[in-house]
Write a structure and sequence with these properties.
Radius of gyration: 19 Å
Strand order of the largest sheet: 1-2-4-3
CATH architecture of the largest domain: 3-Layer(aba) Sandwich
CATH superfamily of the largest domain: Thiamin diphosphate (ThDP)-binding fold, Pyr/PP domains
CATH topology of the largest domain: Rossmann fold
Number of strands: 4
Strand content: 5-15%
Number of domains: 2
Length: about 180
Amino acid sequence: MPVRDLDSFFPGTSAAIRFLGNRGASGIDGLVSSGLGAAASGAGPVVLALGDLAFYHDMNGLLAAKLHHLGATIILLNNDGGGIFSFLPQAAYPEHFEALFGTPHGLDFHHAAEMYRAAFRRAETWEDFRIQVRDALASASLSIVEVRTARDRNVALHQEVWAAVRAAVRADLAAASGKAP
């Protein structure tokens, strides 16, 4: 979900920002390793944005950063499970949804950061997030900034944003055609 959100909602800018995407069998295969591979190329600061299941799925990729002293900033969006499935029809069946699709894990990724000698920060507010990402980018080492989110709130926020986008597009089309929305 994080790469989809970046694709949809990253603000326009005149800054030269390069986005790389990795699409594995399930969209989560090797994301940590691919991000650290980009960091190894030396092409500038690397920020890897991914969800908790993708991070967990390729956590052993952090060994490359430890062994090769790679610097990167990992933004870990932790909603304790598979948030993308909350947008799909199976979310309407709560009696089996959590176990089969939500897949909560209850993991504390601070321990993984410790094991691989990465800095770990947990952002509690947006201001805290900005500061922690800025500090992580200034570091030459591996940093993980975790943001805890709620899957149900994420779905609600997406619905609100897309409703606002639809309303704005309708209003612009109506104004362009000379009709009231």
